[in-house]
Amino acid sequence: MGQSTVGRAIIVLLIFALVVPAFAQKQVSDDKIYDQVRQKLANDPDVKGGGFDVTVKDGVVTLKGTVNDKNAREKAERLTKKVKGVTKVDNQLKIFGT
């Protein structure tokens, strides 16, 4: 093998090593996202989201229920966005008394 052939082979192997893992990554299942979102919201002392209705479809999380104030509503959305696999949050949470 010539020097240029070895160089090309190394480049091809490097590209292969970088590209294949990206395709091999599994998407996070909606069930796993659901579990993690419910846990985060229920365990947060500000959000107190144990009673929320949470649905997940293709990584899009919909939150329904009632919170005490605007800050809790915004925090619930922020916490949800941090969960791996979440692509979008449809925050339909209502503020109590409004």
Description:
- This protein has a domain at 30-95: Histidine-containing Protein, Chain: A (2-Layer Sandwich), CATH 3.30.1340.
- The chain is rod-shaped and about 75 Å long.
- The protein has helices at 3-24, 30-43, 70-81; strands at 53-57, 60-67, 88-95.
- β2 (60-67), α3 and β3 form a beta-alpha-beta unit.
- The model has no long low-confidence stretch (mean pLDDT 87).
- It is an alpha+beta fold.
- The chain has a three-stranded mixed sheet with strand order 1-2-3, with helices on one face.
- The chain contains three helices and three strands, in the order ααββαβ.
Which helices and strands, and how do they pair?
Blueprint (H helix, E strand, L loop, with lengths): L2 H22 L5 H14 L9 E5 L2 E8 L2 H12 L6 E8 L3
Parallel strand pairs: 2-3
Antiparallel strand pairs: 1-2
Mean pLDDT over the full residue set = 87
The proportion of residues forming helix, as a percent range, comes to 40-55%
CATH topology of the domain at 30-95: Histidine-containing Protein, Chain: A
Biggest β-sheet: strands ordered side by side in the sheet: 1-2-3
Largest sheet: 3 strands, mixed
Give me the strand/helix succession. Answer: HHEEHE
* Overall SS class: alpha+beta
Question: How many beta-strand elements?
Answer: 3
Could you name the ranges where pLDDT drops below 50 across 5 or more consecutive residues?
none
What is the CATH C level class of the domain at 30-95, in words?
A: Alpha Beta
Shape: rod-shaped
In terms of DSSP E residues, the strand content is 15-25%
Going by CATH, the architecture of the domain at 30-95 would be: 2-Layer Sandwich
Tally of helical runs: 3
